[in-house]
Write a structure and sequence with these properties.
- The complex is a heterotrimer of chains A (about 130), B (about 500) and C (about 210).
- By secondary structure, chain A is α/β, with parallel strands linked by helices.
- Chain A is built from five helices and five strands; from the N terminus they run βαβαβαβααβ.
- Chain A has one domain: 3-Layer(aba) Sandwich (Rossmann fold), CATH 3.40.50.620.
- In chain A, α1 links the parallel β1 and β2.
- Chain B contains 22 helices and two strands.
- Chain B has a two-stranded antiparallel ribbon with strand order 1-2.
- In chain B, a hairpin with a 6-residue loop joins β1 and β2.
- The N and C termini of chain B lie far apart (about 45 Å).
- In chain B, about 60% of the residues are buried.
- By secondary structure, chain C is an all-alpha fold.
- Chain C folds into three domains: about 60 residues, no CATH class; about 55 residues; about 60 residues, no CATH class.
- The chains are: A alpha/beta (about 130), B mainly alpha (about 500), C mainly alpha (about 210).
- Chains in contact: A-B, A-C, B-C.
- Chains B and C meet through α3, α4, α5, α8 and α9 of B and α1, α2, α3, α4 and α5 of C.
C-alpha cells in the first residue's frame, strides 16, 4: 500500500505533493511520486528537473516519509498512466492537483483530473493550491 | 580580380525579397537544426515546390540559408541536452555539454555562435577569391574531365556515407539507373519506361528527393522507440566573456581554415571538418586532458569548422557543377528546375546569381549571429513540440507540395513510392544520399562518357592521355581499390578475434 | 545529428539522428559489457563510435544474416533485370555506344556490388530487423495510398483529415480529443493557405 501523487512542477503539483506527504505520514505508507512526461519530444515542461526532484525527496524524508520518484515517459493519456501506475504500486490513494478549467477549455483540451477521478478504482484526493 | 560583379551581387542581396527569403531560410534552418527528426537535405527537398514560384537567386539564397542555419541550430541541443541536432554537432556535445553542466551553457552557445559566424565569413571571403579561379580553370574542362570528376564525386560521397561504402555504391548505381529512365538524349529511344506515358519524359527529380529524404525519414522515425524526456533548462548569459573569446581565438582561426579546406572536397564537409578541427585542437593543446571536461576550444573549433565547411561545400557545386554531398545534390536539382545549369560558366554567365548567392551568406551569417544569441530560449521552447504532431503535418506538406509542382497526381504516387523506398533503404542500411546524388549526376555522367568515347574513338585509355582526367581517374582508382585491398591484407594477416574482427572488416569492406 | 549533409559518417542521411543521452551526469554507454568508462576518458574515435551507437539505441535490433542475404539477392536480381533490359535496348560497342551501353555498365556494376554484398551478408550489422513498430510504417504508407487514391474523387480535405487523424491517434497515440481537434485545425490551415491564399489547383471539395 502506497500513496501515489501525480506531480508536475506547477503550483497545483506542489500543493498535491504537500498533501501527499501529509497523507503518507498519516497512513504510515511510502510515497510514490509520479512525474511522467508525454514521450515524443526531447524536452517537456512537465518534467521536474533534478534539482526539483532532490528538493522533493528532501521534503519527504524530513517529514519521515519513504519516497520513490518515477519519471519514465508515457505514451497516450496521462490519466490512463496514472491509473495504471496506481495499480502497479498498489496505491491506497491517488493525490492530484486541481487547476481551474473553463468549460471551453475542458472541451478543447480535456481535463486529466476529471479522467482520473472518473476512471480510478481507488480513492482520489484532489487538492487546490 | 574584377570586383565589380561581387559588388553587384550585394545589390542583388539587398533587394527586399531576397533579404526576406534569406531570413526565412536561416530561421527554418535553425529550427530544423534544433529539432531532431528532419535535417537540411530533407527540409530543402520538401521545400523544393516553393522554389518554383520565385526567382532562381531568391530560391538558392533561401535553400543555402537553411543549410548553414541548420549548423547553428544543431549546437543548441548539443550543448543543452547532450543531443546533437546535426551530425556536425556531435563533437560539440563533449565539451559543450560539460560546460553546460558547469553552468557555462551561455558561454558555450555564445562562443559557438561567434565561431560559426567567423568560420562562415572567412569561408565566404575565401570562396569569393577561390571560386572564380576554379571556374576559370574548369572552363578548359571537356567531357573526359567531367566524366572523371563526376565518377570521383560519386565515389567520394559514397565513401564517407553512413551505412558503409558497398551499400552506398549500390545506392549510387540505382540512382544512375533511375536517371536512364526516359528518352535517351542521343538516340531518342525510350528506356525503361514500360510504355507508361508519365515515365516517357523521365523521372522527375523533385518527387524522388521529397520521397526519399522527406517521407522516407518520417516513416523511418515511426519505428523509433522514444527517448528520455528532459526538463527545460534555463540559459542565462548567452554571450562569451572576453576571456573565453581570447582562449578560443586560436581554435576559431584554425577551425575556419580547416573547415574551408575540408568542405570543398566531395564527401568531406561539415561533419568531417568538425571532427578534424576538434582532434587538431586536442592534439596541439598544452593540456589535452581539459578536452571533454569543458574546454572552450572544444566547442569553438568544431562549430567554426562546420560552418566554414558548409559554406565552402558550395564551391564544387557552383563552380564545377558537381555536388559535394547529398544536400548540395538537392540544391543542384533545385537549380536545374529553375533552368540554371551549374557549371564553370555559371560565374561568368550568371554573375548576379552566383554573387547574389555567395553574398547572401554574409547577410545570412549576420542574421544568424543576431538571432542565435537572444533567441536561444525561444528555440529551446521549440523542443517541446512532439514529433507525433509534426510528422503528419510534414507528410501533408510533402504530399500537397509535390502536387503543386506539375499539378499531376502521378507525382504524389511517385513521392509515396520513393518514400517507401527511402524507408526500406534506411532500414537496410543504405544511405539515400548517394542515390539522389547519382541520379542528379546521372545524365551528366552518361552524356560526358559517351562524348568522351566519341572523342577517343572508342579507346577508353584516352582518358589517361589528358592530364586532368588522367589524374582524376587515378585518384578514383586509388580511392576505390585501396580500402578493400588493405582490408583483405589485414584480414589475412591478423588472427581473427570473433567479436571485433567481424565488426572491423564490416566497416572496412562495406 | 541528422542532417548531416555535408560530411563524414552520417553524411548522406538527411534526417537528423539525435543521440540519446542520460539526462544528467556523465555520458555512460549502455553497452553489453556493463558500466562503461565515461566519455571523457575515451579516445576521440572511440567516443564518436560510442555516440553513434547511442544513435541506434531506440531502434530495432540488427537484422539477421538471412535478411542480409535477401537484401543482397534483391540487389543482384535488380541488377540482372536491368542488364537484361539493357541488352534489349541495344548494346553497341565502346566505339559506337547505343542506348543500352551505359545501363549495361551500371547494371553490371550493380550485379558485381550485389554479389559482394552477398559475400559479406553474414557479417553485415547495419541493417535493422523488422519490429512490431514496422506495422506503424505500413499503416502510415497505407494512409498515404488512400490519400492519393481518393483525392481526385472527393478532394483533399477529407483524406487529409483522416490521414492526420490516423497519424495522431494510432501512430502517435495521442488522445482522442487532441487527434480530432488537431486534424481539423491542420486541414483548415491547409485549406486557408493552399486553396484560399495560394490558389493551388489541388482537387478540393469545399
Amino acid at each position: 500500500m502506497t500513496v501515489l501523487v501525480a506531480y508536475v512542477p506547477t503550483p497545483e503539483g506542489n500543493a498535491a505533493f504537500t498533501a501527499a506527504v501529509e497523507e503518507a505520514g498519516r497512513r504510515q505508507e511510502p510515497l510514490v511520486v509520479l512525474n511522467t512526461p508525454r514521450e515524443g519530444a526531447p524536452v517537456s515542461a512537465a518534467v521536474a528537473s533534478d534539482a526539483t526532484v532532490e528538493a522533493l525527496v528532501q521534503r519527504a524524508t524530513a517529514a519521515g516519509v519513504d519516497v520513490e520518484v518515477r519519471q519514465d515517459p508515457h505514451a497516450g493519456e496521462l490519466a490512463d498512466e496514472v491509473v495504471r501506475v496506481a495499480e502497479t504500486v498498489d496505491a491506497s490513494v491517488i493525490v492530484i492537483g486541481l487547476r481551474r478549467r473553463s468549460p471551453v477549455g475542458k472541451l478543447i483540451m480535456g481535463s486529466a483530473a476529471q479522467r482520473i477521478l472518473l476512471d480510478a478504482d481507488r480513492p482520489v484526493l484532489a487538492v487546490k493550491p | 580580380m574584377d570586383f565589380a560583379p561581387v559588388l553587384d551581387g550585394f545589390g542583388v542581396v539587398l533587394e527586399p525579397t531576397n533579404l526576406l527569403y534569406c531570413l526565412i531560410g536561416v530561421v527554418i534552418g535553425m529550427l530544423i537544426g534544433v529539432l531532431p527528426g528532419l535535417g537540411p537535405a530533407a527540409t530543402i527537398a520538401i521545400l523544393l515546390p516553393v522554389t518554383f514560384g520565385i526567382e532562381p537567386v531568391t530560391a538558392i539564397i533561401m535553400l543555402a540559408g537553411i543549410f548553414y542555419g541548420a549548423q547553428y541550430g544543431g549546437t543548441i541541443t548539443s550543448v543543452l541536452l547532450k543531443l546533437p541536432g546535426e551530425a556536425s554537432s556531435v563533437v560539440t556535445v563533449f565539451d559543450g555539454h560539460a560546460m553546460a553542466r558547469q553552468g557555462r551553457a551561455g558561454s558555450a552557445l555564445g562562443i559557438a555562435a561567434v565561431g560559426s559566424f567567423i568560420g562562415g565569413t572567412v569561408s565566404i571571403i575565401a570562396l569569393t577569391l577561390v571560386a572564380p579561379l576554379v571556374a576559370g580553370f574548369a572552363l578548359d574542362f571537356g567531357p573526359p574531365e567531367y566524366t572523371a570528376l563526376a565518377l570521383l564525386g560519386i565515389l567520394l560521397v559514397s565513401t564517407v556515407s553512413s551505412g558503409g561504402r558497398l551499400k552506398a555504391l549500390i545506392a549510387a548505381c540505382v540512382g544512375l539507373l533511375l536517371a536512364t529512365v526516359g528518352r535517351d538524349s542521343f538516340t531518342g529511344a525510350e528506356r525503361f519506361t514500360f510504355d507508361n506515358l508519365s515515365l516517357a519524359d523521365g523521372l522527375d527529380f523533385v518527387p524522388i528527393a521529397m520521397g526519399l529524404f522527406g517521407l522516407g525519414e518520417i516513416l523511418y522515425n515511426l519505428e523509433e522507440r522514444h527517448r528520455a524526456v528532459q526538463a527545460p533548462t534555463a540559459v542565462a548569459n548567452v554571450w562569451p566573456s572576453r576571456r573565453d573569446l581570447r582562449e578560443a581565438s586560436g581554435a576559431i582561426g584554425r577551425g575556419s581554415v580547416l573547415g574551408f579546406v575540408l568542405g570543398i572536397l566531395p564527401g568531406g564537409g561539415a561533419t568531417l571538418s568538425s571532427l578534424a578541427a576538434y582532434a587538431l585542437e586536442k592534439r596541439r593543446s598544452k593540456n589535452p586532458e581539459r578536452f571533454g571536461k569543458g574546454a572552450i576550444e572544444g566547442v569553438a573549433a568544431p562549430e567554426t569548422a562546420n560552418n566554414a565547411a558548409a559554406t565552402s561545400s558550395f564551391i564544387p557545386l557552383l563552380t564545377l557543377g558537381i555536388p559535394a554531398n547529398a544536400t548540395m545534390a538537392v540544391i543542384f536539382g533545385a537549380l536545374l528546375i529553375q533552368g540554371v545549369s551549374p557549371g564553370p560558366q555559371l560565374v561568368s554567365q550568371e554573375p548576379e546569381l552566383f554573387w547574389g548567392v555567395v553574398n547572401s551568406m554574409y547577410i545570412g551569417n549576420i542574421l544568424l549571429l543576431i538571432m542565435s544569441i537572444p533567441l536561444v530560449g525561444l528555440f529551446v521552447k521549440i523542443l517541446r513540440v512532439r514529433a507525433t504532431i509534426l510528422a503528419p503535418i510534414t507528410v501533408l506538406i510533402t504530399l500537397v507540395g509535390v502536387y503543386t509542382v506539375n499539378n499531376d497526381v502521378f507525382d504524389i504516387v511517385l513521392v509515396i513510392v520513393f518514400g517507401a523506398l527511402g524507408y526500406l533503404m534506411k532500414k537496410s542500411g543504405f544511405d539515400p544520399g548517394p542515390l539522389v546524388l547519382a541520379f542528379v549526376l546521372g545524365s551528366l555522367l552518361e552524356d560526358s562518357l559517351r562524348r568522351s568515347l566519341l572523342i577517343f574513338d572508342g579507346d577508353a585509355t584516352g582518358f589517361f592521355t589528358r592530364p586532368i582526367s588522367g589524374t582524376l581517374l587515378v585518384v578514383f582508382l586509388l580511392v576505390a581499390l585501396l580500402p578493400p585491398i588493405r582490408a583483405a591484407l589485414r584480414h589475412r594477416r591478423a588472427v581473427p578475434d570473433p567479436d571485433t574482427a567481424s565488426h572491423d572488416t564490416t566497416k572496412e569492406l562495406v | 545529428m541528422t542532417a548531416a549533409h555535408g560530411g563524414a559518417p552520417t553524411q548522406g542521411s538527411p534526417g537528423g539522428q539525435p543521440v540519446a543521452g542520460p539526462p544528467s551526469g556523465t555520458v555512460l554507454s549502455s553497452g553489453p559489457d556493463g558500466p562503461a568508462t565515461p566519455l571523457e576518458e575515451l579516445s576521440l574515435e572511440e567516443a564518436i563510435h560510442r555516440v553513434e551507437e547511442a544513435e541506434h539505441e531506440g531502434r530495432p535490433p540488427a537484422a539477421g544474416p538471412l535478411s542480409n542475404v535477401l537484401t543482397a539477392a534483391a540487389v543482384v536480381a535488380l541488377g540482372i533485370a536491368a542488364l537484361v533490359g539493357s541488352t534489349r535496348l541495344g548494346l553497341g560497342t565502346v566505339r559506337s555506344p547505343e542506348s543500352g551501353t551505359w545501363p549495361l555498365l551500371v547494371s553490371a556494376a550493380l550485379v558485381a556490388l550485389g554479389l559482394g554484398l552477398l559475400a559479406a551478408a553474414r557479417r553485415t550489422t547495419d541493417a535493422e530487423r523488422f519490429s512490431g513498430a514496422s506495422w506503424l510504417v505500413l499503416a502510415g504508407l497505407a494512409t498515404m495510398v488512400v490519400f492519393v487514391a481518393v483525392i481526385q474523387i472527393i478532394g483533399f480535405e477529407i483524406p487529409a483529415t483522416l490521414l492526420t487523424f490516423v497519424w495522431l491517434r494510432f501512430l502517435g497515440r495521442e488522445g482522442w480529443r487532441t487527434s480530432i481537434v488537431t486534424s481539423l485545425a491542420v486541414v483548415v490551415a491547409f485549406y486557408l493557405i493552399f486553396v484560399a491564399a495560394l490558389s493551388v489547383p489541388i482537387p478540393h471539395l469545399f
